[in-house]
Amino acid sequence: MAEAAARRRARGGGGAARRAERTAVSVETAKYIERNIPLYEPLNEETLEIIEANAETVLAEVGVNFVNNPAALDRWRDAGAEIDGERVRIPRGLARKLCETAPSRILQHARNPERNVEIGGDTLVCAPVYGPPFVRDMDGGRRYATMEDFHKFVKLGYMSKWLHHSGGTVCEPTDVPVNKRHLDMLLAHMTLSDKPFMGSVTEPSRAQDSVEMCEILFGREFVQENTVMTSLINVNSPLTFDDVMMGALEVYARNNQACIISPFIVGGAMAPTSVVGTLTQVLAEVLAGIAYSQLIRPGAPVIFGAFVTSIDMNSGAPTFGTPEASLILYGAGQLARRMGLPYRSGGGLCGSKLPDAQAGYEAAHTHNAVLLGGVNFMLHACGWLEGGLVSSFEKFVMDADQLGVLHHMARGVAADENGQAMDAIREVGPGGHYLGCAHTQANFKTAFWRTDLLDYKPYETWEEEGARDTMTLANLRMRRLLDSYQQPALDPAIAEALDDYVARKKASMPDAFI
Amino acid sequence: MAEAAARRRARGGGGAARRAERTAVSVETAKYIERNIPLYEPLNEETLEIIEANAETVLAEVGVNFVNNPAALDRWRDAGAEIDGERVRIPRGLARKLCETAPSRILQHARNPERNVEIGGDTLVCAPVYGPPFVRDMDGGRRYATMEDFHKFVKLGYMSKWLHHSGGTVCEPTDVPVNKRHLDMLLAHMTLSDKPFMGSVTEPSRAQDSVEMCEILFGREFVQENTVMTSLINVNSPLTFDDVMMGALEVYARNNQACIISPFIVGGAMAPTSVVGTLTQVLAEVLAGIAYSQLIRPGAPVIFGAFVTSIDMNSGAPTFGTPEASLILYGAGQLARRMGLPYRSGGGLCGSKLPDAQAGYEAAHTHNAVLLGGVNFMLHACGWLEGGLVSSFEKFVMDADQLGVLHHMARGVAADENGQAMDAIREVGPGGHYLGCAHTQANFKTAFWRTDLLDYKPYETWEEEGARDTMTLANLRMRRLLDSYQQPALDPAIAEALDDYVARKKASMPDAFI
To answer: What are the structural domains, with CATH classification, of chain A?
Structure first.
């Protein structure tokens, strides 16, 4: 309450803002998932202890590289690490000790407080695909992504009931100069949606711009005291932290903004082929990265990230939704919880070129592992195609619909009197049917998950309507959603200030395209 | 060893048989899954106890109907149940007590002893789709199934590495009279494959025919002493046991052949809308059915079955791969294990009309629940389409490929020295890559599950090759498999005796088509 009031004060805004708020169309968004089911933990205590001991050995004996970052080396030296060139060897226990100041749960604020999310404990927050340079839909095929595509994805995310987060680089808008596109992307998240979002990490200065735009949107003091962005810091696996990502991390940590410290691993290429070996490297990298964030600012909010997939050893292609990736996802979750940290992994992953059966199998495998594996922040929850090269419009709405499955699974099993339904069993008896009984009448609206997309029609109806596959149905739904999109209200003074900031920043530098 | 020798003796066979065996093409079949991972058990002790207590209440107060089956009523009366018309009310604890003589693990023999399967404990045996009257492929579309289709599915099952079982009615061959088709179906399983199979349940006399054909294949004594068929006895939910299914069960139980006692439930129509209510009814039905099997022959091998899905409350259509169905699948597994019984549930289920993304999502949800939920016998593991109305050739090979995912997941996580891979991490170090390191070279062939179907190619290659979706790739693979099919060797004397039996039986009755 106090926060909302503070935000309103910070925003200022007068009659126009209030009018805009009154006329806003309400878009339903489910609360982030709070699991009422146990987790699946396939690694036993002995295996977890081996991984933890080996990760300390890796940090102490092999070490990690902090590249082009003399200040980072100084910080590590001061903290007690051994520095050799750019190599940082971290004595046993030091990194884990430093990680202890990181919070176990993060409240990320949205500009609409109803869309705030909590990341940690039993929660699962779903955010869309991140990073692809291409987009695909049935209408235009596969092509380089543009800012227009980016806008469409933000709008679809805003309208997706089961998606809690607007994400970050939902696609890479290649028609905007590379040094300016972060401004347009942030502006889109801030104005076309009211869900929480991610900041830029491609340069420390762009992270700083992200903070400054949030200060306009949320108020300067509010940003310093609260988390309003969760940003993605990838580790250059194996065991390398580059200056760009670390520079962005430094900006965010100093400003109390959340970062995901995320090894990005194609197993067999950037980590060993084995599950335990890969988890050892993941843990070493996360320990080093999160420890470093706490050297910048003790208490800075961070998330234990793991984006791990495996390689097709014949072609060298990355593969997704594979059993080895699932086991690593489960294991990394166990390791994160033992550190008391929020956990991020990928969801909706697939290697398929099309949103077809392969995409469905692979995405469902990952979705299931994410839910049962205790992930708190699921990036790529919807829209990911072709190993992350493509943001697919059809797969976006297909996956977004599937996220409802996870919400309903997470509700678990009610064993109260209504759940037991003994009256219904008595009422119906042998040979009867339940469609009309009192219990069914009272429960049918909420009893079962209902798709907004998939086909359950009789065969004859389905055929009369054109025998459409899921991709075709998703294309229709995507276009209907975009047609009915209405922008959420925003104080015009804030909108203007954001526009001014973006225009000023863009004018201050020449275009760059690499 | 003794069994194999006994079988060879029982079969007889001479030089021709031995020659046939020598020239047989070897088709690789993976051993049934033995899980090296924990199970997922979302229901807590209190909920399980409520379900168990309520199921006893249902049996004692509501009771079950045994229809058109005076002998069954006599058996129940003798056992201590209260009979009222066709209603059987079973005193608390009686059914559970009767179930105690059922074995916890079943060894089902195949004519090729290498293909024997164990059903129970930590195992998972995969069997194909069962029951659809239609088939579909890209070449011929959707159409009524014929015996030619049936033969193709049996051949595909024989050639599918991850499929352990040939199944039963892989499709319903509608071009053969209904009273004779079981003969042709069994003959196909016995001669076109050497994997274990299921018997006919559509009439008690057809169950008897199944037993007699097995006596020809395995030898009469062998059949009386060993399980050579696992057959599907559906309960007419709610709480009704019809004379046809019970008649078949009686034949199989008397002959020591395994039956799955399986409530077939569309939740909301044939059971309450709630998970706990549905599980209560499932347990009551299984308790009554398995108890009845033990009244026929104490020690008769039986499987706790549960085929449960939910309904789309708007259209009344059954839905598949839904979260409620998964929770019921997990819960039923917990109940089965508490009874010490093998557990059967469905896998690869979907409501989709096509093997598209919907089919992929839904089948993967069910596959995952089956693996983690402790299912011992997965019927419909591959080929199920359109809510079970259609056996799909393309989905058969798609799902069959996916079963490899389950095999690899079930291997779990090795934490030995090779699994730890510390030498590799030391060898590669920060910034290196693992592709060429010694550990990768030693492990890459077996480290990761490899698809025989899905596409991992570079985009450009994929496009040059025709931009094929998964269905198209599956169609190609299906045709390639059928082109390279070679019949497994069978003693010609046995083959002739089987042919004679079928011809004689067919000649003994007029054709019937309903």
So the answer is: 45-98 (no CATH), 103-411 (3.20.20.480)
